[in-house]
C-alpha cells in the first residue's frame, strides 16, 4: 500500500469537520462493510429488517446459537460468532441497542440458581461447623475444606452473568476483541442517553473483562516511524485527538529526527495502536505547542535535555476508563532513558480540557449570586456586597477589565464582562482585552489545577491522569495553544507536568491516598 | 549472539540424559540466577535461610507487602513484586512449598464476609419481592435491580480468594506471567506429592486465570526459521520433547526447505514460544519418523501434497491442561493452505505414549487371572480356561510367539512370554521375535487407539488431543520410531491422524458429545 491513500485520507479529513467526536471514525476507516445508517427513526425495529436486510432478530439468533453450543466444542460456535460479528456491524444504532438490551436481560445472572447455592453454602457451614476460627487456626480438615472450595467455585461460576461465556468466546474469536471494544463504545453511548441498570451492569462486567484481557503484559510497545505502513500511519492521523495532524509534512515531522511516537499494540488488534504517545526531544521544557509542532527546527538528539510528551491519544472509545496510558508512559520513559541518555527532564505540554467550562460556570454562579443579593438588598434596603460571595476577581484585575472593554458597560461588573467575553474566542484578537484577561485567567487556572477537586481527586481529567502517575504541576503557559479548540477549552493556556523520576512513586502514592496535588512553588 | 553458544548447548545436552523430564530445564537455561538446590532435606525451613541467604519468610514478607498496598497505587507495589520474583526463584523446593501453602491458606476466601453478604442478598430478595418471574417478564424496577447488580458484583469480589489480587498484580508486572507459570509448575509438583485441598484450590484458581490471560487473542503466531536468533533456536532445541534434536544439522534441516516450524508467542514472554509445532511438506503421509527427520531429502515445496505435523511441544510445564495446541494447529493449517496451495492432506505422525503401559498392565492382569483360575481349577478339580478370561492373543499369534521364543518356556503361555519380552527392548534386535510380535502388537494397538477409553474419551492423551480437534485415526505404522523411547512407549509403532478440513467441525463435535472415535476403515 503506497502513501498515496494516506494523502487522500488527509485531504478528506481536512475537508471534514475537524472537531467531530472521533468515536466511530475507526470503524468507518478500517472496515469495508457497508456503512449502516446509525440513527434509525424506528423506535422498535425488532421484526423489521434494517436497510441492508439484517435485523436485530437475526443477529440475536446468531448470538443465541453461539452461546447455546456446549462449552467444550467451540469449533461449531465459531461460525455463529462470525455471523454475529458481521451482523452486528451491519445493524443500525437502534438495532444494536435492542440487541444489547436483550443480552443484558436474557443472559443475566441466574438468580434462582445463585439463591439455591447460597442456601446450600450457608447450611453447609452450620452442619460442618467449620467456623472462621478453625480456618484461621490452619486446621486443614480435608473433606470439609474441599467442599467449601468446590461450593465457592460453583458460586463464582453461578454469579457470572450468562453473557460472560459469550464475551469469553468472542474474545477468543479472530477480530473478537475489537468487536467487544465497539460493543462497549455503543454501550457507553446508550448509557449516556438512558442509564438503564441492566445495561450499566453489562457495561461494568464487560469493562472488568477488558481490563483483564488488556493487561499490560499482553500489550506490545512499538515505536512508530515513517517506515511503518501507510495503513498504520493513516490510523495515527485519524486518531490523533490532541493536536490534529494537518498534512503529510506535519506527520513526517512528528515521526522524524528529534521526535518519537510510541504505540501500545495488542496481538488481537494488529496494525492499530490502542493508544499512542508523541514525544519531542528538546533543549528545554517548551512553553507552547506552536514551537513544538511548527516553529522550531529539531535539535540534534544528543543535545536534548528534555523529553516532552505533547500528545497522548487513545483510539478505542470502547476502552474508556481503562488506564493504558499509565503503563505506556512508564515504559516510554524507561525506553528513552536508555535511548537518549542526555535527557534529564521528562515533562508534558498538556491541554487543560476542563478549565474554561469550570470558569464559566463559576462566573455564572457568581453573577447569579450577585443578582440575588442585589434583590435581597433592595428588599431589605441594605447595601450590596456579602461575605458569602467569593471574590473571583482581584480589585486590580476588575479595574483593568472594565477599562479595556470599550463597549457599553453601564452597570456591568468585571465578572459579568469577563463571562461575556469568554463565551466566544473574539477577545484573543484584541491585544488590549488579552492583556486585561491574562492576569485573572492565569491566576484562576493555577487555582483550578492546584485546588479544584472532585471526589478528592483533581477536577481536571488530564491533571488527574498525570498526578496519579506521579507527576507534579510545574508551570502554566500563556497563549500556548492558540488553536480554536485551545482557546475554547482553556483560554489558550497549557500546562507542563513534570515527572521527576526519583519522586514518581512517592508523589503517586501520596496523591492517591490523600489527594494532595504536588505543584512547583512557582506555580501559585 | 552467535550460533556458537547454541552449539555449546547442543554438546551439553547430548552429554546429559536425553530423557530427563523437561520440567525445570527452561529456568536453568534462561535465567542467570544461581541455581538453587531444589531438593532440601529440611522439612520445615521457615526460619532458616536457604543456601543463598533467602528464606521463605523474606519472600513471604515481600508478597504480603505487595498485596497490602491499596489497589489504586500500584507503583510502590512494583518494588515488592520485583523482590518477590527474584526471591521466589532463589528459594529451595521446600521454601517454595511453604510459601505457596501460606498463600493458599492466609489469602483464601474471606468466608465471614461472604456469609454476611449472602445473608444480605437472601434477605434483600424477600423484602423487595423481586422474584424470578418479575425478572423474566422484563420488568425493570430500577432501584431493586440496581441493588441486585451491586450486591452480585460485591459477592463476585468477595468470593475471589484474596490471592486473586496478587496474581493480577504479578501478571501486570514485567516477567510476572512467566513467574506465574513457574509457580504453577511447582504447584503441580507439590500436588503430585500430596493432594492438599488448599493447594488444589490455589492451582485451580491460577489455572483459570492463566487460561484467561493466555487467550488465543493474546498469542502471536511466528514462523521460526534459521534466521531467528540463537537464543530462540536454543530454546527450540531445549524444549523439543517428541523427537530430540541431535545436532545443528538436524536443527537446520527442521527449519529449512520442505520443513516448517511455527511457535505461539505471548508478548509478556518474549523470545520463547509457549508451544511450537514442526511440519514436513511431503509427497505423501510418512510411515516413519526416520524418513521425515533423516532419511529422505526434502522435495521441492511445489510438489508437496501432504503437510505432516510430526512434533508438537509445549515449553511451560506450568501451562499444563491449558489447550494452546488446538488453536495453534488451526492457525497453522490456515496458514499452510495459503502458503502451499498444492497441499491436500493435513496429517500427523504421532507417538502413542500410553500404548505399552496399557498393554503391559493388561497382560499382567491376564496372567494374574490365569493363575487364579489355575488355582481354582486345582481346588475344584476342573479343567482350565474360563469364559471370564479375555483372549488377548489369537491362537495363531500365540503359536508363533511360542515357536519364536527359543529360551526355556516350559509351562509358559504366549501371554507370559509376550509380557516378559515387552519389558525390555531386546526383542527389537531379533528379526524372528519382531516378526512374531508384530501381528498382535499392531492389532492390539489399533484396538487401544480405537476402543480404549477413560471417562468417555480416548485413553491415549495424544489421541484425545487430536480427536477433540477433529482429526480421525488413519493408519498405524510398524517400526515407525525405532528410538529407545519409541520402542519403550509403543513398541516402535506410530500413528497418523488425518485432519479432513470439511469434516473437522463435525468430527470434533461428535467426539466431544458422544465420545465416538472416528477411524479409517482400514485401521481395524
User: Order of strands side by side in the largest beta sheet of chain A?
Assistant: 1-2-3-4-5-9-8
Using only CA atoms, what is the Rg of chain A? 28 Å
- Under the CATH scheme, which architecture of the largest domain in chain A would be assigned? 3-Layer(aba) Sandwich
Determine the N-to-C terminus distance of chain A: 52 Å
Contiguous uncertain segments of 5+ residues of chain A: 5-51, 126-140
Structure description:
Two copies of one chain form a homodimer. Chain A is of the alpha+beta class and 524 residues long. The first copy, chain A, has four domains: 149 residues, Up-down Bundle (Butyryl-CoA Dehydrogenase, subunit A, domain 3), CATH 1.20.140.90; 49 residues, no CATH class; 131 residues, Malonyl-CoA decarboxylase, catalytic domain (Aminopeptidase, 3-Layer(aba) Sandwich), CATH 3.40.630.150; 169 residues, Aminopeptidase, CATH 3.40.630.150. Chain A is 53% helix and 9% strand. The first copy, chain A, is built from 22 helices and nine strands. In chain A, the strands form two sheets. Chain A has a seven-stranded mixed β-sheet with strand order 1-2-3-4-5-9-8, sandwiched between helices. In chain A, strands 6-7 form a two-stranded antiparallel ribbon. In chain A, strand 6 and strand 7 form a beta hairpin. The interface between A and B is large, with 65 and 66 residues. Chains A, B: One of its GO terms (molecular function) is malonyl-CoA decarboxylase activity.
Amino acid at each position: 500500500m503506497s502513501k498515496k491513500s494516506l494523502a487522500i485520507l488527509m485531504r478528506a479529513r481536512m475537508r471534514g469537520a475537524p472537531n467531530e467526536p472521533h468515536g466511530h471514525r475507526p470503524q468507518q476507516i478500517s472496515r469495508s462493510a457497508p456503512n449502516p445508517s446509525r440513527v434509525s427513526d424506528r423506535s422498535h425495529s425488532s421484526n423489521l429488517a434494517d436497510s441492508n436486510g439484517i435485523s436485530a432478530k437475526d443477529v440475536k439468533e446468531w448470538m443465541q446459537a453461539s452461546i447455546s453450543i456446549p462449552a467444550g466444542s467451540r469449533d461449531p460456535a465459531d461460525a455463529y460468532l462470525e455471523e454475529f460479528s458481521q451482523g452486528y456491524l451491519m445493524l443500525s444504532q437502534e438495532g444494536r441497542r435492542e440487541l444489547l438490551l436483550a443480552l443484558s436481560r436474557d443472559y443475566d445472572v441466574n438468580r434462582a440458581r445463585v439463591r439455591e447455592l447460597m442456601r446450600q453454602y450457608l447450611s453447609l457451614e452450620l452442619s460442618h461447623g467449620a467456623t472462621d476460627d478453625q480456618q484461621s487456626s490452619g486446621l486443614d480438615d480435608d473433606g470439609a475444606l474441599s467442599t467449601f472450595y468446590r461450593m465457592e467455585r460453583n458460586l463464582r461460576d453461578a454469579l457470572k452473568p450468562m453473557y460472560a461465556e459469550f464475551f469469553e468466546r468472542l474474545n477468543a474469536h479472530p477480530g473478537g476483541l475489537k468487536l467487544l471494544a465497539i460493543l462497549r463504545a455503543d454501550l457507553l453511548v446508550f448509557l449516556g442517553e438512558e442509564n438503564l441498570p441492566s445495561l450499566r451492569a453489562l457495561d461494568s462486567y464487560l469493562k472488568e473483562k477488558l481490563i483483564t484481557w488488556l493487561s499490560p503484559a499482553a500489550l506490545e510497545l512499538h515505536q512508530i516511524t515513517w517506515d511503518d505502513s501507510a495503513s498504520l500511519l493513516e490510523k495515527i492521523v485519524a486518531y490523533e485527538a490532541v493536536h490534529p495532524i494537518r498534512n503529510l509534512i506535519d506527520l513526517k515531522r512528528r515521526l522524524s529526527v528529534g521526535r518519537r511516537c510510541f504505540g501500545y499494540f495488542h496481538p488481537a488488534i494488529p496494525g492499530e495502536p490502542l493508544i499512542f504517545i508523541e514525544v519531542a526531544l528538546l533543549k528545554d521544557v517548551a512553553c507552547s505547542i506552536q514551537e513544538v509542532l511548527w516553529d522550531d527546527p529539531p535539535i540534534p538528539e544528543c543535545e536534548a535535555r528534555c523529553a516532552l510528551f505533547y500528545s497522548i491519544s487513545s483510539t478505542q472509545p470502547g476502552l474508556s476508563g481503562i488506564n493504558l496510558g499509565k503503563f505506556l508512559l512508564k515504559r516510554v520513559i524507561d525506553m528513552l532513558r536508555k535511548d537518549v541518555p542526555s535527557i534529564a527532564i521528562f515533562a508534558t505540554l498538556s491541554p487543560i480540557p476542563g478549565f474554561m467550562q469550570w470558569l464559566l460556570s463559576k462566573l455564572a454562579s457568581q453573577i447569579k449570586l450577585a443578582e440575588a443579593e442585589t434583590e435581597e438588598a433592595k428588599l431589605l434596603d441594605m447595601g450590596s456586597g456579602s461575605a458569602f460571595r467569593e471574590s473571583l476577581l482581584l480589585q486590580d484585575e476588575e479595574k483593568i477589565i472594565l477599562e479595556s472593554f470599550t463597549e457599553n458597560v453601564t452597570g456591568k461588573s468585571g465578572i459579568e464582562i469577563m463571562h461575556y467575553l469568554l463565551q466566544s474566542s473574539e477577545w484573543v484578537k484584541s491585544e488590549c482585552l488579552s492583556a486585561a484577561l491574562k492576569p485573572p485567567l492565569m491566576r484562576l487556572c493555577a487555582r483550578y489545577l492546584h485546588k479544584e477537586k472532585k471526589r478528592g481527586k483533581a477536577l481536571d481529567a488530564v491533571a488527574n491522569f498525570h498526578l496519579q502517575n506521579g507527576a507534579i504541576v510545574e508551570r502554566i503557559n500563556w497563549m500556548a495553544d492558540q488553536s480554536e479548540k485551545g482557546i475554547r477549552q482553556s483560554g489558550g493556556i497549557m500546562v507542563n507536568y513534570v515527572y521527576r523520576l526519583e519522586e514518581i512513586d512517592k508523589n503517586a502514592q501520596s496523591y492517591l491516598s490523600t489527594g494532595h496535588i504536588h505543584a512547583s512553588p512557582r506555580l501559585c
